[in-house]
Protein 1
Amino acid sequence: MTDAAQHPAHHADQDRPQDPAATPEAGVDAEGAVSPQPLAERVENRSQRPSSDAFRAFMGADWAPSSDELPAQDASAPHAARRRAAVSARYPGERIVVPAGRLKVRSNDTDYRFRAHSAFAHLTGLGVDHEPDAVLVLEPTDPGAGDGGSDHAATLYFRPLAGRDTEQFYADARAGEFWIGPRPTLAGLAARTGLRTAGLEELESAVTKNVSADGTAVRLLREADQDMDALLAGVRAEAGVDAEAAASADAQVAEFLSELRLVKDEWEVERMRASVAATISGFEDVVRALPRAVGHARGERVVEGAFFARARLEGNDLGYDTIAASGNNATILHWIRNTGTVREGDLLLLDAGVEDDSLYTADITRTLPVSGSFTDVQRRIYQAVLDSADAAYAIVRPGIRFREIHAEAMRVLVERLADWGLLPVSAEVALSEDGQHHRRWMPHGTSHHLGLDVHDCAQAKRALYLDGVLEPGMVFTIEPGLYFKEEDLAVPEEYRGIGVRIEDDILVTEDGAENLSAALPRTPDEIEAWMARLQA
Ligand code: GLY
Ligand code: MN
Ligand code: MN
């Protein structure tokens, strides 16, 4: 029984507009005039914060001091330093500004958990929780006088932990240790990253000093932090910097930072192996949860929840919203509502990835028979997709072009579609630029780069992405699928309502490729045996 039911008068008080004369902060006074209190401040109206000197003195006293023990250096630090050296080499004499981003409002006064911009994470090596409002600035130095003999000195500006005798400690619900737990000190984050660190009060002058139309060139990674965008736009305008030229300079740095992530170093690959391992555990959890999902009004949510629990247990979060798509929902490519039921006899397409604490993510799809075994037609469609994935994987090695992977996957799928008599044209015509009839059932790309972002390196030039040549250390997906919608009258009835995708995470090695997600069963027989084992 709720409190409101026991105290109806109290409940009614909360819902009913109150007598404005009795509540001077209510927003509208007795004459109907709007209160001068700004809307943004009214979030404070629900609580009282004592402000007497005596209260402040009491709250600021008698706390044990924070530990001054310095943390060890992060394993990512030397790798991040090498990445910064590459940025330095590309932009000698220019200031490069890379914000982490700000807390994002979910609604009203509720924020999402903080997740730094991927370029910031890449250049600092910092993962989960670090550090809203922080900005990395690479300041040009005399040639060779910068970090590690480079041409830049890098400083990480952020809001350091405030002492327990400060007002921030107990009064700042977004940053105070009393409210959100300890955060790093300047010395602590310097020890972890190997970076120079400074407080946010020094940031504005560090970003804006000497900006002139013909003086210090600044490049900003835009759209990570709207305050930085506005600050630099204002300073540039004042200095007479051409706005179009500045936009183009900024866009180029976004492109460069995206391309810098195309090849992963050994530390990144190690973190991606961890993400993949956690994701595989999540898929196992889902198989164990399937009997509970079957028949539940929102069975797909049971699936989504089982995976999410693993993502939070072993990693930071999901790398993207889980697609838990059963039956015909598997033919809806971006089905993230996950409101459907899960029925015996249907296939469940699960596309999910755990984001590691380092923020690197996996991106894996398996299509599972809910009842534990594939029907003949499900197996036929599944095998075609598997053949396509295997054929694409077989050609991966350094030196081929990224686009060849998709072409090979489509060659096999089109062959199967032609064998089944589904194409209105020959396989050759379908594969031609003007054909593409198979896209009715396989409308998406076969591969995308993977890393800090699920669709990593998205700002890279086409020449380095789709038309790019594979190099050892690249990580991308291979994810062909076939999707026959239940309303698709161009296919035989037995195909309708079946969607299959198989997605693996592939590392290019010196002489070929490694399927990082190969430990998750892929063939129909393996999947059936694996499900039986997990559900025994
Ligand atoms: N789950 C997003 C993708 O596979 O690209
Ligand atoms: Mn993918
Ligand atoms: Mn995926």
Protein 2
Amino acid sequence: MKKNPSRNVHFSKGPSDLLDTINSSIDIDQRLYREDIMGSIAHAKMLGKQKIINKKEQTKLVTGLKEIQKDIEKNKVVFSKKLEDIHMNIESLLFKKIGKVAGKLHTARSRNDQVVTDLKLWIKSESKVLDNELKFFQKTLLNISKENVDTVMPGYTHLQIAQPITLAHHLLAYVEMIGRDRSRLKDCLYRLDENPLGSAALAGTSFPIDRKFTTKQLGFREPTKNAMDSVSDRDFVIEFIFVLSLIGVHLSRIAEEIVLWSSQHFDFIKLPDELSTGSSIMPQKKNPDGAELVRGKSNLIISNLMAMLNIVKNLPLSYSKDLQDDKSLIFNSYDNLILCLRVINEILYKSNFNKTKMRELVDKSNATATDFTNWLVQSLGYSFRDAYKLTGRIVLYCSKKKINIDSLSLKELQKFDIKITTSAKKVLSSVNSVNSKSSFGGTSPKNAKKIIQFAIKKYLK
Ligand code: ARG
């Protein structure tokens, strides 16, 4: 039977099965094998350079660790639960491979600084994947926007039709959100980019280690400054899951819009069959399950964030085993988020927008009433409040007659003010309405074209 190297002779008995079950994390943290080996190699090289071990021992350790990595990647390794975690499993594999000299690797370090180093390295490397996925999603949004700078649709506040906008204007809002997500990820990476290796258990070490050397080897910006903080700090986990949560929230908002837009009530978007699901009882149904699941999964990520905050909040300094569960929360959040990003991206680029339907809806909703109000101000010198009141009376008149404001004749309009001219009729068109919103950040196609070019330069290069 495998013996856990962390159980020394001072134990008279092995752990109970129940303790093993609750204590073992190998099923989850084996995902960190690459980072663990990378950290161990840097540590072994540093021990050699500092003459804490000799060159021969250094070479043996490094070669052994590299071989273990190959073995794992060739599926030749069966990890053992008895050995608790990835750190102990690799140490035990190293003993098998190179014999007693393996026992020198753990000089001047602890699993406490080891695990936090591994996790930081993992986040750094996966963040590149995440950032690329985010970038790819922005690209999809920008491509659809490019084709729809003048596709008129209803813009909503309170889910009531407010003013005409374009589909590009709507989707470009998400480009901005994802842009902020990417910059938030970068900020979080900057703060976590300090190397905890060499903090040992909590107090540092009496061996003459060189932390700057491992920092450089592992690609961190600088070493952490307090060994106690280093091993107990999980702020970076919280921040990272927060970043993921907020991306999840943004995806959930798009998902919610896809659910609405694909319903018969809106009918703005047609999901392709490959992205719709059926009902087991209602033969006619096509459901947007993909989008609904994205909306739902963001809840899981938010819950993981709450769980992580709660794990840390009652822990005295420094390390406590509660922290071991950080990995399942991070991996679960990350995997779900990457999946959600890919699903939403696929739905958006494979769906067809029903331009006719969007235009029809905006055209029968008095959505240009504000444009008419603005015309009264700009052309007849009304104060905004007086113009707003007069337009209100016209809207009331229209609703009683069950017609739209844009179908009123000039004569009818002049009943409200004789000075109204044909140019007022023009502002009632939804196309003219969007064209007129040329203030910076507004929905006009001219603006959208500029913003798209700006976004391509800023985000896709
Ligand atoms: N598996 C542990 C974790 O993930 C590694 C650190 C163990 N440290 C200890 N003092 N028992 O947190």
